[in-house]
Design a protein that fits this description.
It is built from 13 helices and 4 strands. By secondary structure, the chain is mainly α. The two termini are 33 Å apart.
Length: 273
């Protein structure tokens, strides 16, 4: 999420490779996928010898770790199968299981996506469960804890692809207060060409509200109070939850004022606790 959307970067390159393949077999048909179809890409990649599935359910290359993207070309060209490769395993290591902030791994090699911060911040469109919010820390788009602690990632090397590099420090660690202040136009401008654009303003600011509540700093109160007037009830509700986590008179005043006019019952529940 630091740089250009990897979907937009990888897809045309795979299309170029597919076109080259068709030059050698004009009758061939092909289709390209980069997280855009119901393809069990990690299983196929493991079968192809690109790595093994770790206890964190990620595909791990023993020489490169797990910091990479997967893309596929489906083709009718008859390709010779690759020879099976002997792969290591996680052994007795369970650092990823122990480090997960939300305990999203009920067992090794099993992920409960409903508790995964990446799912909660990117894929979940509705209300983030209250019991999980305090466990999410300051993650507002995705989570990499289970990869950061993986011993195999000590072999990973930074990408040389310039489009994956962060333009500035703001792309890596954006100001939470700046994010909370984004309107629709500012969001589109700031995240144009970024994968973050896919979740749209409402979800990103919802996540930022949770992070602000976990931060607990009163400097976030004005921005959160302003979001109590947002047309999106989910955003209003998460802003209300965040304000209740901050011990500040202005936060309490904002909640009291919002209760006098709020009509949505779920938002009112967030305001009252």
């Amino acid at each position: 999420a630091w740089g250009v959307d990897y979907h937009d970067l990888m897809t045309p390159r795979l299309e170029e490779l597919a076109a080259w393949m068709r030059e050698h077999d004009p009758q061939a048909q092909s289709r390209v996928y980069v997280d855009t179809g119901a393809i069990l890409e990690r299983d196929h990649a493991e079968t192809a010898g690109l790595g093994f599935t770790g206890k964190n359910t990620m595909l791990i290359d023993p020489r490169r770790g797990s910091w990479f993207f997967l893309g596929e070309i489906l083709t009718t060209i008859a390709l010779p199968p690759t020879s099976p490769m002997t792969m290591p395993s996680c052994g007795s290591c369970q650092r990823c299981l122990d480090a997960c902030p939300t305990a999203a791994f009920p067992a090794p090699y099993e992920l409960d996506a409903r508790r995964c911060i990446s799912y909660l911040t990117i894929e979940l469109k509705g209300w983030i469960p209250r019991d999980l919010r305090p466990l999410m820390g300051n993650w507002i788009y995705g989570c990499d804890v289970c990869q950061e602690v993986c011993p195999f990632n000590r072999f990973a090397e930074p990408s040389t692809e310039p489009e994956f590099q962060a333009a500035d420090v703001d792309a890596v660690t954006p100001s939470l207060l700046d994010i909370l202040a984004l309107d629709d136009d500012a969001f589109k401008k700031r995240f144009f060409g970024s994968p973050i654009k896919r979740i749209k303003r409402g979800r990103l600011l919802r996540n930022a509200c949770v992070a602000a509540g976990n931060w607990g700093d009163k400097s976030a109160v004005p921005a959160l109070a302003n979001l109590l007037q947002d047309p999106d009830p989910i955003l209003r509700g998460h802003a209300a939850w965040a304000l209740r986590q901050i011990d500040d008179p202005q936060a309490r005043t904002a909640i009291f004022d919002a209760l006098r006019i709020e009509q949505d019952q779920q938002v009112r529940q967030e305001l009252t606790g």
